[in-house]
Amino acid sequence: MLRAGRALVLNTSDTPAERERREFGDPLRQIWAACVLPYVGVTDVRRHVFRTVSDSTEVERSVWLREARRQAAGLLARLRAGAREYGPYGLRGYVRP
């Protein structure tokens, strides 16, 4: 089990956001938030979708990578603040070497 209780899921998509909401809802959020992460102790799921991939430019993809790093750094900062209580990486049973 993960003691961190949080996860950042980064997805890419070729489906425009409006069409995905209208026709499909948000099935990937459901998969991550209801079918995968709760079983490893994650209750706070943060998800970001970068789209549309197939017609994206190198500049757009570079912006996406910066945004992914920014979001991951923000989540890690919060996890590190909690590491004093739970140990590095938020792992249950972690023993310092």
Automatic annotation (TrEMBL):
Highest taxon of source: Bacteria
Matching InterPro entries: Flavoprotein-like_sf (IPR029039)
Name the UniProt record assigns to this protein: NAD(P)H dehydrogenase (Quinone)
